[in-house]
Amino acid sequence: MSAISALLIPPSSSLPLLPPPQSFFFSLPAPLVCLYKPPTAFFSAPKPQLRLLPRRALSGRDETAEASVSTATIAVDNAESPDATAFVIRARNWIGLLQVITRVFKILGLRIERATIEVEGEFFVKRFLVVDSHGAKIEDPESLDRIERALRDAIDGAADRTPAGPGTARLGSRSLVVRRAGLVPESGEGKAKAERMFSLMDGFLKNDPISLQKDILDHVEYTVARSRFSFDDFEAYQAVSHSVRDRLIERWHDTHAYFKRKDPKRLYFFSLEFLMGRSLSNSVINLGVRDQYADALNQLGFEFEVLAEQEGDAAQGNGGLARLSACQMDSLATMDFPAWGYGLRYQYGLFRQVILDGFQHEQPDYWLNFGNPWEIERIHVSYAVKFYGTVEEQDLNGGKRKVWVPGEMVEAVAYDNPIPGYGTRNTINLRLWAAKPSDLYDMESYGTGDYINAVINRQKAETISSVLYPDDRSYQGKELRLKQQYFFVSASVQDIIRRFKDSLNDFNQFPEKVALQLNDTHPSLAIPEVMRVLVDEEFLSWKQAWDIVCKIFSCTTHTVVPEGLEKIPVDLLGSVLPRHLQIIFDINFSFMEELKKHFGLDFNRLSQMSIVEEGAVKSIRMANLSIVCCHTVNGVSRVHLDILKTKVFKDFYELWPQKFHYKTNGVTQRRWLVVSNPGLCGLISKWLGTDAWIRDMDLLMGLRDHAGDAELQQEWKMVRRINKIRLAEFIDAMTGMMVSPDAMFDVQIKRIHEYKRQLLNILGIIYRYDCIKNMKESDRRKVVPRVCIIGGKAAPGYDMAKKIIKLCHAVGETINNDSDIDDLLKLVFIPDFNVSVAELVIPGSDLSQHISTAGHEASGTGSMKFLMNGCLLLATADGATIEIIEEIGEDNMFLFGAKVHEVPKLREKAENHRVALQFARVLSQICLGWYVMATLAMRITSNLSVTLLKGVVTSIS
Ligand code: NBG
């Protein structure tokens, strides 16, 4: 145990259970947002590097002002007192300084014995006599150094948010930063007006309870338009959210002003899906005002948690890829990147799953019905997006140019969603586009006299952003999907180019200002779109444009199987985006020529690598297009990259090995621990003596020092128990089933897929049930009661996945109603699994299953969420789990099934595989109708036997 950790172990009650993270900023080592690999190198951006936001840069102060507040000196004096350490802090005073200092001591588990204050000219000298948590003097130099650094960081950090310099008020509280009139004209009427404006809005919104209450009640009255004497929980949630949004907007403006001034290289993250879940809790935690809101609401008679529960999920995505985008945004903001997210604002999110008689039914998720306080509609930020039409050749700008004459035009209107970083003022933007009818076009149809139909036709434009496609692994080349992809890409590219041109006009500098990260192939039309804009609209030569494109794009792929790769029929693309098809053909032509030089006339290879797939339906392979144009192709785990290199993109890897990289996925601990498991969060901070792990995950290693401590174990159990009770209540509310929190909660929650093998889990449950039924009473007493929990949605068109859900219900019906086995085994299906359900289930789980057939899960981020909540894993060596095993050790998990390299061999042998007796017995029980829906189950099993024999069974052994 290091000296500092020994020092920092608090005497249990000296720290609040959940130290408010907003109290001050430690300056932290470069944060790691991924559990295992920091994603900073994600973009492999060419020089110059993206410029990170300096931690103190967003205070609205200039550099000269900075010098004037950073004059604090801190001295340690161990001679002054025989039994306490003196910290002497000499600084210009500001309101709140004392609070910041005492807070540091408190959080470090130190006790202030005595404090004195003297004045020396304009300086104050504050002397604190301090002892450690055991009442002893602090003598260890390392500890002293850490305390001193914490003090300095806190004082400087708080001072950074404190105004300085002439003409500004000195407000010490962290939230009272004064705005500086950076754009005030030097003199004249303009100056007077600007000064007046800034004096009217001279401070950021305050976060003391009274100010918060006033803001909330104002929003009740003026935004929600309810009387402040009569409003319900939902209206209170709306008002609270709007007041939080106001605070987000302040930081968001500062961030934009800062980056506009500095003009760094910006990172643009393009994704068709963002699975954000709820925002309120996450926002107040990242803003550092969680406790203030809780207090303020308490005094008004509301509970923060209850209001947070009112929020619906923003389910603008399907599964792993989309949740990764959301975690990515949180991390980019926290790590001070000048980043932007771009996507589509769907009116209907991922369908709601309703279970009727054990079958999944889909209901539309019209999530905007209740308003969305987190977005800001930017009616003035809109772009026309073109579709259909023809390409003509015209004489333009001194040469023959291609001109796309569109057949339809739709307006893309921006909806901005501020994303706050944790422990920083950096608040980045997720800009989502909504489709609106365009005013620019279609005037003619109004002249025809059929006014009503003209309006109705225009309204159809809105369908582009109306609904999220609910499949996560298959793409059927649908026109609407293609229009969605191009719509968001085109608007985003126009926005980026507009921003670039605001400061520069030379496109040679474009790669120094823009990095474009494509999340899977869905946004890959951005490639021909940038080519089109540069060549057709900015009149660059093809070569110049191509050089730029090759420098700015990188992409991540999230799939392992070739069927998951997107293809767009040429006919469809040619009709919707005629100019883009030409550009793709031209790119492919040059690429093929390059290939011939490299590999000779190896037609087999050429046809496999071609962007254009010949065949019954001639198609564009979006993955090939991306690889050809991107400087970096990113896998999401080590084994995923291996599979890309050796199978899916083998030929490309041989050609361009330098392009292929991997960054193992991560999840943000802000969402998956701090928001979802406050009990464990408090415990960790208490035992580590700091909450710095909320930005720097590696610090959790420090818990190892305390792992054997009985007190910690006891507290841990208590936290787990409370989470399990909460989960049991939720299960009761959702399914009407009472489960005992004393039982082991064995959980598998994720999208339903054959490769994820929920089916295998269910077969295992049947086997367990059969064993219990056949046990002697004495043996039954040794069985650990278990509640098996399964949850997840099946894509509406994925028949087998839907049957698996039905089988789960059928088996549950039998097991749960069997009074003979009592509480020894239960099977629960949690309906409508989404982000907020996961936030509730994960902290209450004892065991979680991640049992995909090895070689099928690209990464798998679920296991990371369970793991950081202290849940045991039962997992195959697949995706990121392989790296997790290396980190935590095989002894600390239940490793299961065949390895990646063993699976193909087992598949080969599957035809003649003799299944284990128990397995055959389980199948026959289903076939014999033990589990209610015998006929249905029979149909499943007949399909199953093929799957099982080919893959599943091999992994049971
Ligand atoms: C998923 C993979 C997961 C991976 C996430 C995030 C899609 C299409 N793919 O294994 O199946 O963890 O992407 O990379 O959601």
Automatic annotation (TrEMBL):
Domain ACT: 86-166
Source superkingdom: Eukaryota
Pfam families the UniProt entry points to: Phosphorylase
Biological-process GO terms, alphabetical: glycogen catabolic process
Positions in coiled-coil regions: none
Family to which the UniProt record says this protein belongs: Belongs to the glycogen phosphorylase family.
Name this protein carries in UniProt: Alpha-1,4 glucan phosphorylase
Originating organism: Elaeis guineensis var. tenera
Gene symbol of the encoding locus: LOC105043558
